[in-house]
């Protein structure tokens, strides 16, 4: 049972529930035999005149009563079995989903580089649903049917071992056929899952990119890609069905041969006078009935082989080491120091960050600038511990951030990204993300400071307006201001601003700049900026080029140095005078 618990990744409670489910299923199987046993007794009683006896109508009345009781008992057992198996499996899958979601939250971002959204969604929904199906529809039935078959086999062997052997000799052969197909089925189901993921990706891409596809007249071309993937999925599904079907049908045919064998052995024993006619008749009735649970097992096993892939995918995800660290130790100050840090997104690729050593003093405003792809965002992600550096270290207040729990570290930081993520909830709740314990009046104060209040009050339900998926109904500037309100509400001592105003029109930019000024007051601030005029007043400007520090200093110092910064600045000021 321990092995099964580990294989199915069950909690102790889940394992205990599974045991109860197996016991309930076994009880259902035995209770289902009761009406049948009563019926047999009736038949034997009714056949008594054939051997010169007399039918006892008292006994027949008793059998009738027993029949009704056994049917009621079977129904009660079935109800209990339903509750035990299904409720237990739904509880277990809820726990699995929550623990996977919790685990994903703590994973290093490198995992999200190698896995796409569909893959993770499938982990969370599809794989858990498959394991739920295995727990509710397969494993208890497999065990219960196995136990019932063994029990009946032993009971029949006590009566006549030769007939029992004839009934059961084909069962191991049928199982052997299904078990042999396991490797082939495993291969086919892995391919099928992979192509299903690819198809989900294509469908998502097609729906998300529908505007671009239409605008560029790419409908046919893109649809052909989607159609090919869906066709491949159908081809593999059919191949898998045929592959499974051949083995299951083969195993069932072998099993059916057991009926013929029992008849042959029975007739042989009857003619030899070693078995009476009525016991033989009962054996023949039993053999038809007894193969039903075996056939159920033969069809359930391939499904279990298929679902094993889902469980393996869940195990693979859960085996990725989450980021850990100290959750308690408070930071004494907010000096951020990068000491000779090196980093690459892909271990085989060139370094994205190479030997950077910089200091961002507490309470200062530091800007990171440089050409596109020079590594500005990467440095900010390393400071926030979205990724860990390959070598060198980053300290805050003298504490190496690798020793800090990411969530603890995050409690000291606010972010404002250019791409704002909004959730399908009210505006109020979207701002509350900054501080879960904030009261409504604090949220509204933050919204006012972030210049959100005016546009929010213009919406049909004000702060209770539902935003829809990713706030699709708001403009870029409005979304940006909501993210600033969140950061204001969080009131963290370190603020990271990544291209916060880069894509906004001048009017929006001015109001967002005001909101940002309120946000960064008295904080340790790191700004990533493309538009150099917005950071001319920074205490220190770090210029990155190809993942290295090219130069640093104040705006005036860098202009006087006549290096990369001056070149970037000159290009930008000249382009401001262009007209289209
Ligand atoms: P920009 O100004 O255009 O936003 P940046 O200076 O912020 O650029 P980064 O986003 O840090 O540059 O990217 C630095 C390099 O790392 C680029 O070559 C980019 O392609 C690569 N890179 C960024 N993010 C990832 C990622 N998640 N996986 C792999 N490579 C990445």
List the helices and strands and how they pair.
Layout: H1 2-7, H2 12-46, H3 57-105, H4 110-114, H5 117-159, H6 161-168, H7 170-180, H8 182-208, H9 210-215, H10 219-271, H11 277-319, E1 336-343, E2 353-360, E3 365-369, H12 376-383, E4 391-396, E5 399-400, H13 406-410, E6 413-417, H14 427-432, H15 440-449, H16 453-457, H17 476-490, E7 494-498, H18 506-520, E8 524-528, E9 540-545, E10 548-553, H19 555-561, H20 564-576
Parallel strand pairs: 3-8, 3-9, 6-7, 7-8
Antiparallel strand pairs: 1-2, 1-4, 4-5, 9-10
Helix pairs in contact: 2-3, 2-5, 3-5, 5-6, 5-8, 5-11, 6-10, 7-10, 7-11, 8-10, 8-11, 10-11, 15-17, 17-18
Residues 113, 345, 352, 370, 372-378 line the site of adenosine-5'-triphosphate (ATP).
């Amino acid at each position: 049972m321990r092995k099964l618990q580990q294989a199915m990744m069950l909690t102790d409670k889940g394992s205990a529930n599974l045991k109860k489910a197996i016991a309930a299923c076994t009880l259902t199987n035995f209770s289902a035999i009761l009406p049948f046993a009563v019926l047999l007794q009736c038949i034997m009683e009714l056949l008594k005149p054939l051997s010169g006896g007399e039918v006892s109508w008292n006994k027949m009345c008793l059998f009738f009563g027993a029949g009704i009781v056994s049917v009621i008992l079977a129904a009660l057992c079935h109800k209990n079995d339903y509750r035990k198996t299904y409720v237990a499996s739904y509880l277990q899958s809820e726990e699995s989903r929550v623990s996977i979601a919790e685990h994903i939250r703590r994973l290093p971002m490198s995992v999200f580089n190698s896995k796409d959204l569909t893959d993770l969604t499938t982990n969370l929904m599809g794989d858990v649903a498959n394991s739920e199906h295995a727990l509710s529809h397969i494993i208890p039935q497999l065990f219960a049917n196995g136990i019932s078959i063994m029990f009946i086999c032993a009971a029949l062997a006590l009566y006549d071992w030769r007939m029992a052997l004839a009934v059961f000799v084909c069962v191991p052969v049928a199982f052997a056929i299904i078990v042999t197909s396991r490797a082939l089925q495993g291969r086919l189901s892995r391919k099928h899952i992979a192509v299903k993921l690819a198809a989900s990706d294509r469908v998502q891409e097609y729906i998300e990119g529908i505007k671009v596809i239409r605008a560029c007249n790419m409908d046919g071309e893109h649809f052909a890609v989607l159609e090919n993937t869906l066709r491949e999925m159908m081809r593999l599904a059919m191949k898998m069905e045929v592959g499974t079907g051949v083995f299951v049908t083969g195993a069932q045919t072998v099993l059916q041969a057991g009926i013929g064998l029992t008849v042959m052995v029975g007739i042989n024993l009857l003619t030899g006078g070693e078995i009476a006619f009525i016991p033989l008749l009962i054996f023949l009735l039993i053999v038809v009935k007894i193969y039903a649970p075996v056939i159920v097992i033969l069809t359930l096993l391939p499904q279990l082989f298929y679902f094993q892939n889902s469980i393996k995918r869940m195990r693979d995800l859960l085996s990725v080491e989450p980021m850990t660290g100290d959750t308690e130790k408070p930071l004494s100050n907010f000096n951020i120091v990068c000491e000779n840090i090196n980093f690459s997104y892909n271990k085989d690729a060139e370094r994205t960050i190479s030997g950077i050593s910089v200091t961002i003093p507490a309470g200062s405003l530091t800007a990171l600038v440089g050409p596109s792809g020079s590594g500005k965002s990467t440095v900010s992600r390393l400071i926030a511990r979205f990724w860990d550096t390959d070598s060198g270290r980053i300290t805050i207040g003298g504490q190496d951030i690798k020793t800090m729990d990411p969530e603890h570290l995050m409690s000291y930081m606010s972010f404002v990204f250019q791409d704002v993520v909004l959730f399908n909830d009210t505006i109020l709740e979207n701002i509350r993300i900054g501080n879960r314990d904030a009261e409504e009046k604090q949220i509204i104060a933050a919204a006012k400071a972030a210049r959100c209040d005016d546009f929010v009050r213009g919406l049909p339900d004000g702060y209770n307006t539902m935003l829809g998926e990713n706030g699709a109904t708001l403009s870029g500037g409005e979304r940006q201001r909501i993210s600033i309100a969140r950061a204001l509400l969080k009131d963290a001592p370190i603020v990271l601003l990544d291209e916060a105003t880069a894509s906004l029109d001048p009017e929006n930019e001015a109001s967002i700049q005001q909101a940002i000024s309120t946000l960064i007051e008295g904080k340790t601030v790191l700004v990533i900026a493309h538009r150099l005029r917005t950071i001319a007043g920074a205490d220190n400007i770090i210029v990155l080029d190809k993942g290295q520090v090219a130069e640093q200093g104040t705006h005036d110092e860098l202009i006087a140095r006549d290096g990369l910064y001056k070149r970037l600045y000159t290009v930008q000021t000249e382009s401001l005078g262009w007209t289209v």
